[in-house]
Amino acid sequence: MEVMLHITTLHYLVLGAALFLLGVIGVLTRRNVVIVLMSIELILNAVNLNLVAFSRLWGGQHGQIFAIFVITDAAAEAAVGLGILIAFFRNKETINIDEVNLLKW
């Protein structure tokens, strides 16, 4: 017997919501800057998944094109964030968010 699975837009939306929730929990609960950056990337990937799912549902290309721009922005954010993180680690020898006070007077 052949069992056929039909994946609908709702499946993509539930997966996107789960990824978004995991990303938000990671941003709010973790104190490691690397984990926070990875959680932000997870949030952006959840948004991309929803954009592509709705683009597929409505038959247009706008969501997919916008998702490519979000991916480009996420890559730039990761590069800049890791550069700042490396510079901070060289100065303070820690990557704990609680000890980041460079912008305080």
Write a brief structural summary:
The protein is mostly helical and 105 residues long.
Spell out the key features of this protein.
74% helix; 105 residues; 3 helices; Helix Hairpins; mainly alpha
Strand-helix topology:
Elements lengths: L8 H21 L3 H26 L3 H31 L13
Structural commentary:
The chain has 105 residues and is mainly α. The chain has three helices and no strands. The radius of gyration is 18 Å and the shape is elongated. The model has no long low-confidence stretch (mean pLDDT 88).
Low-confidence sequence ranges: none
Structural class: mainly alpha
Report the average pLDDT across residues.
88
Work out the number of β strands: 0
C-alpha geometry: elongated
CATH architecture of one domain: Orthogonal Bundle
Computed over alpha carbons, the radius of gyration is 18 Å
Largest sheet: none
CATH topology of one domain: Helix Hairpins
User: What is the helix tally?
Assistant: 3
Estimate the strand proportion. Answer: under 5%
CATH level-1 class of one domain: Mainly Alpha
How widely separated are the two ends? 70 Å
